[in-house]
């Protein structure tokens, strides 16, 4: 297949591009490199030293003889360029990672909220709009998030996208329907993923576009079989308070002897998936496209759920790290249960990599190897969800410490 990987320079996009190229597909990465600019804005860098995308693809060719092509295109702003590229290259499938994906970054300030909404919603809409305009029947696989369901305790398992409901009709009968599970975003970032869902529903219904939406859990780990092939193929590894995600952050905190940062009671339960499984799921989704005219295919792309304080305890037991109990900068339920259905990927052959598989210590080893690159002042998560929460943390809303008033 000819596959366009939008956002293929990122944490999940890069190993996906390598995996699909390794499997013999003709892979094209489209990326505006905004994630690298955000590193510069925040004054942080990936724990692992990343080369330029051109250098990464050169090394891939030298190692494997296979080519991955890179195209510098902004999906949100370069509509005409995107449309022209799609029309010329006419890929069989498109994987859409190209969004601003950090909830804390999306909540930093009004500017960051605007940027996240404009970037994510325009990127998705431009892509759908262009597919219709040029008459391209490519299968679109989008990376969404488990966060679209919200994190309130319901006492029932979360289905894969659609909820069966009965509605009482005017005649007193019960009409059965399957509706999108009610969206319940917990940040501006998550809200953009909820809006994406509606865009997909509309374009599948109106124009017969074939769309798969993957509601992904928090990705942990860093290596895949292909990123291990050469030091310069290494994946990015975010550890900072905005882009670092919970389990990877605990692992690096343990490696640099920094107390594990648990916010609130640590009673938040979240869904997880290892990076190698994330890449495999995307390949499985590519091989199982919906029919033209069918509704959007939705998979829950996660393999296990864990409570944050249990994760911290597990890492502490393995590494001896202390746990720091900190005020929560987010506005969220202090405790929640989470039961998630994920039979679809399991049924299509996914054999999950679980936390028990021993990969945790592998990541601690990576973290120790590159610990010299860590700026400890960038470890705390300080972007506050509201001005009131920022005040209780003695920070401005972007997370900068306020001078104390004497
Ligand atoms: N990492 C996770 O734990 C996780 C969990 C659930 C869902 N996801 C979703 O998976 C996708 C990929 O996540 P990631 O961790 O690889 O993120 P990432 O930030 O590392 O990668 C995203 C890539 O998209 C590019 N990009 C952003 N906006 C763009 C635009 N307008 N035009 C072109 N390129 C653009 C960035 O430069 C970057 O290379 C995201 O959509 C995210 O919401 C990630």
Characterise this structure.
By secondary structure, this protein is of the alpha/beta class. It has a single domain (2-237, 271-304, 333-352), classed as Rossmann fold, CATH 3.40.50.720. The chain is 36% helix and 18% strand. Strands 3-2-1-4-5-8-12 form a 7-stranded parallel sheet, with helices on both faces. Strands 9-11-13 form a 3-stranded mixed sheet. It is globular. Bound molecules: nicotinamide-adenine-dinucleotide. Residues 7, 9-13, 31-35, 74-76, 97-101, 119, 123, 143, 145, 216, 218-219, 245 line the site of nicotinamide-adenine-dinucleotide (NAD).
The CATH H-level superfamily is: NAD(P)-binding Rossmann-like Domain
- How many individual domains? 1
Q: Write the CATH fold name.
A: Rossmann fold
Largest sheet, described in full? 7 strands, parallel
Mean pLDDT over all positions: 95
Largest beta sheet: strand ordering = 3-2-1-4-5-8-12
CATH class: Alpha Beta
Low-confidence stretches: none
Shape: globular
Which structural class matches the secondary elements?
Answer: alpha/beta
Indicate the CATH architecture: 3-Layer(aba) Sandwich
Rg result: 21 Å
Tell me the strand percentage band: 15-25%
Brief summary:
This protein is α/β, with parallel strands linked by helices and 406 residues long. The chain is 36% helix and 18% strand. The structure holds nicotinamide-adenine-dinucleotide.
List keywords for this structure.
single chain; 406 residues; alpha/beta; Rossmann fold; three-stranded mixed beta sheet; 14 strands; 36% helix; globular; binds nicotinamide-adenine-dinucleotide
């Amino acid at each position: 297949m000819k596959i366009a990987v939008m956002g293929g320079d990122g944490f999940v996009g890069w190993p996906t591009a390598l995996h699909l190229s390794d499997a013999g597909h003709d892979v094209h990465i489209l990326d505006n490199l905004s994630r690298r600019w955000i590193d510069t804005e925040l004054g942080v860098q990936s724990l692992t030293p990343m080369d330029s995308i051109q250098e990464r693809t050169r090394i891939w060719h030298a190692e494997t003889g296979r080519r991955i092509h890179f195209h510098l295109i902004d999906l949100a702003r370069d509509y005409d360029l995107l449309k022209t590229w799609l029309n010329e290259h006419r890929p069989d499938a498109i994987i859409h990672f190209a969004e601003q994906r950090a909830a804390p970054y999306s909540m930093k300030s009004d500017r960051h909220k605007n940027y996240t909404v404009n970037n994510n919603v325009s990127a998705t809409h431009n892509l759908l709009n262009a597919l219709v305009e040029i008459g391209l029947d490519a299968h679109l696989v989008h990376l969404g998030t488990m966060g679209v369901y919200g994190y309130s305790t319901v006492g029932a398992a979360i289905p894969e996208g659609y909820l069966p409901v009965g509605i009482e009709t005017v005649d007193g009968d019960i009409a059965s329907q399957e509706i999108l599970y009610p969206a319940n975003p917990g940040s501006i970032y998550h809200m953009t993923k909820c809006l994406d869902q509606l865009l997909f529903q509309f374009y599948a219904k109106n124009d017969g576009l074939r769309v798969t939406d993957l509601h992904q859990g928090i990705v942990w780990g860093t290596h895949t079989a292909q990123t291990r092939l050469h030091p310069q193929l290494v994946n990015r590894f975010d550890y900072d308070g905005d882009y670092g995600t919970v389990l990877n952050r605990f692992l690096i905190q343990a490696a640099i002897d920094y107390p594990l940062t648990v916010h609130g009671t640590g009673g938040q339960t979240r869904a997880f998936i290892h990076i190698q499984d994330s890449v495999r799921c995307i390949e499985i989704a590519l091989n199982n496209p919906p029919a033209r005219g069918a509704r959007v295919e939705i998979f829950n792309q996660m393999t296990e759920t864990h409570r944050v304080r249990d994760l911290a305890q597990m890492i502490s037991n393995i590494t001896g790290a202390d746990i720091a109990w900190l005020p929560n900068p987010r506005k969220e339920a202090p405790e929640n249960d989470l039961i998630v259905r994920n039979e679809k990927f399991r049924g299509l052959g996914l054999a999950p990599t679980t936390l028990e598989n021993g990969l945790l210590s592998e990541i601690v080893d990576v973290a120790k190897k590159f610990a010299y690159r860590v700026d400890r002042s960038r470890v705390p998560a300080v972007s506050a969800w509201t001005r009131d929460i920022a005040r209780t943390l003695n920070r401005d809303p972007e997370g900068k410490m306020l001078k104390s008033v004497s």
